[in-house]
Design brief:
The complex is a heterodimer.
Chain A: H1 5-29, H2 33-53, H3 57-78, H4 83-104, H5 112-117, H6 125-144, H7 146-154, H8 156-161, H9 166-205, H10 211-236, H11 240-255, H12 259-274
Helix pairs in contact in A: 1-6, 1-9, 1-10, 2-3, 2-4, 2-9, 3-4, 3-9, 6-9, 7-9, 9-10, 9-11, 10-11
Chain B: E1 4-7, E2 24-35, E3 38-49, E4 53-57, H1 64-72, E5 79-85, E6 90-93, H2 107-111, H3 119-128, H4 144-157, E7 162-166, H5 174-191, E8 194-199, H6 202-205, E9 211-215, E10 219-223, H7 225-230, H8 232-243, E11 255-257, E12 263-265, E13 270-271
Parallel strand pairs in B: 1-5, 4-8, 4-9, 6-7, 7-8
Antiparallel strand pairs in B: 2-3, 2-5, 9-10, 11-12, 12-13
Helix pairs in contact in B: 3-4, 4-5
Classes of the chains: A mainly alpha, B alpha/beta.
């Protein structure tokens, strides 16, 4: 079954969507869309360094994304530039350095378009293992820090006063985001990454009444978008990464219809029954 | 640099969890916070014991919330020390809690924000503050008064040793305010906890509070509500009318406290602190404040 490139793409896409959904909820709640964008832009530099060091690109991307996140924290502490300027500075500097580095490495042939927009149909068995193991690790840590991270999202000082150690949870959350960027790179590429984090979460919001519900719904909606996008790309011979994002956007448009409110009411009744 | 250090049990008993009534829960000694070269508060000496209700009053920007955050350990002191008793469980109602629309949050889920809470305990706490009917409501739909009652329920459901309430009556009308203060006093007695309450309004707080601390970048005066209402510092901060209900006399006053904690004397010179005793009766634990620095 795994011999079929399409099946592999589907399994890889669903693996990424299951992780990107819950993590994307925090990106939306904490207004970190541009932060996610910055990390994914820096991913290309990770790819270049991984090729130089001859390690798996996923490792290189994770390392560079994590360093970018830490650099952002350090620059923010130092004061001066505003957060969005720091993010823009880091996003495009790292992307440019990555592009320059790849151009200099004449001995490797790199499919630049694949890294920029995703090349899910080229997913190998090794990639599948990395995506699912990495994804499981990210979800495990996220579940572990869920309460402090959510408490800090609602009110950081309240969380700190009541012993939730928000700084630690937030640092881990940044590393988790770097992890998701690393495993999702093959799926949608550098430029469309944020869509995968944000659109399923934003879509889920209209169907739910609780944070945990929203995380699950975002994961499910992400899976739908991946499946729909991949079949669509097969059907219409469209590029697969952009097709997935288009499918996610279509689902978001559906969430604006009155049907979302009905589902939400149902979810509320269910939650009350379970509480 | 000052540090937040754990405090050995004040009663001298083996330091295992909170001790009995009267035990010191938190102590600030000469604590100050500076931001960008400006002191938000400075030289704050403050102790809160179990069973005691302490009210902080002062104008906007006088450092009330900053002082509360020092006591909570949310902010570290840049000067002086803060000691939070070992095993002291804190319940906090922050001044501003704006929850973005993107965060789906019902009252019942908010109750479990920082610790797991059973269904019965949730209901009991919400019933105690009179908002049990709102358990399934989304927090963004609540009125100001409802939200404050929900936040209070959340804080007391933790069975805290120290309850810190930052302007808990905001957005509540006058009768609601009285009811809410009665509720807080009742709850504090049931839980046998210490309370640090921040308020704009001396009139209403006075009834239940043990000690009022008047803050304006530093502690201006403190004592029983009655003593503070009579003090010149309080009158100067809040104006004669605010104090009228209880005030009886006013003493002569020869210096002005600046927002950065320094003092301008009658002749115009500016010094680090005033060297006289402010007019207020001493708190039970002995006199604490005398301006920016007694040393």
């Amino acid at each position: 079954m795994l011999d079929d490139f399409f099946t592999r793409a589907l399994i890889a896409g669903i693996g990424v969507a299951l992780v990107a959904g819950p993590l994307g909820c925090f990106i939306v709640w904490r207004r970190l869309a541009y932060f996610g964008d910055t990390l994914s832009h820096s991913a290309l530099l990770g790819v270049a360094l991984a090729l130089l060091a001859e390690v798996d690109p996923i490792l290189g991307v994770f390392a560079v994304c994590a360093l970018t996140a830490l650099a952002m924290l350090a620059l923010q502490r130092r004061g001066g530039l505003s957060s969005d300027s720091i993010l823009g500075l880091l996003a495009h500097s790292t992307l440019a350095i990555g592009l320059v580095a790849l151009a200099f490495m004449t001995w490797v042939r790199v499919d630049l378009m694949g890294f920029l927009f995703g090349d899910i149909l080229a997913v190998s068995r090794a990639d599948l293992v990395a995506i699912w193991l990495g994804g499981a690790a990210v979800l495990t840590v996220l579940a572990w820090i869920w309460r402090p991270l959510f408490a800090a999202t609602v009110n950081r000082e309240l969380a700190a006063a009541e012993g939730m150690a928000p700084a630690r949870a937030e640092l881990l959350f940044m590393l988790l985001t770097a992890g998701v960027v690393a495993i999702a790179l093959k799926l949608v590429g550098v430029l469309l990454m944020t869509a995968l984090l944000i659109i399923p979460a934003a879509t889920a919001r209209r169907f739910v009444r609780g944070p945990e519900q929203m995380a699950l719904a975002a994961a499910g909606i992400g899976c739908l978008a991946v499946t729909g996008g991949l079949y669509g790309s097969l059907q219409f011979d469209a590029p697969s990464g952009p097709a997935i994002v288009v499918a996610a956007f279509a689902l978001f448009l559906v969430s604006l219809l009155p049907v979302a409110r009905a589902v939400r009411r149902l979810a509320g009744r269910k939650a009350e029954g379970a509480a | 640099m000052a540090e937040v250090t754990p405090l050995p049990s004040a009663s001298g008993a083996p330091a295992r969890g909170p001790a009995g009534p009267g035990e010191r829960l938190v102590a600030l000694s000469g604590a100050g916070v500076s931001r960008g070269g400006r002191w938000l508060v400075r030289g704050v000496d403050l102790e809160i014991a179990r069973g005691e209700i302490v009210t902080l009053i002062g104008p906007n920007g006088s450092g009330k919330s900053t002082t509360a955050k020092l006591a909570l350990g949310v902010l570290g002191p840049d000067e002086g020390g803060v000691t939070l008793g070992r095993g002291v469980r804190v319940g906090y109602v922050p001044q501003r809690l704006a929850i973005d629309w993107t965060v789906p949050l019902t009252v019942a889920r908010l109750m479990r924000l920082t610790a797991p809470l059973g269904r019965d305990e949730t209901r009991a706490a919400l019933t105690r503050t009179g908002v049990a009917h709102l358990a399934a409501a989304e927090v963004q739909t609540l009125s100001g008064g409802e939200f404050q009652r929900v936040l209070l329920a959340r804080a007391i459901a933790r069975k805290p040793d120290l309850l810190v309430l930052d302007e808990p009556v905001q957005g509540v009308d006058f009768t609601g305010e009285l009811a809410l203060y009665d509720l807080i006093a009742g709850v504090a007695q049931e839980l046998n906890c210490g309370v640090l309450l921040i308020s704009h309004d001396l009139h209403v707080v006075m009834a239940q509070t043990d000690r009022v601390i008047c803050l304006n970048g530093h502690i201006c005066c403190q004592g029983t509500p009655h003593a503070v209402a009579e003090s010149a510092e309080y009158r100067r901060l809040f104006g004669r009318r605010a104090a009228e209900a209880l005030a009886v006399y006013e003493h002569a006053h020869d210096h002005t406290h600046l927002l950065d904690g320094r003092v301008r004397l009658a002749d115009g010179t500016i010094v680090e602190s005033c060297d006289h005793e402010h007019g207020a009766s001493a708190p039970p634990a002995g006199r604490q404040a005398g301006g920016g620095g007694d040393a």
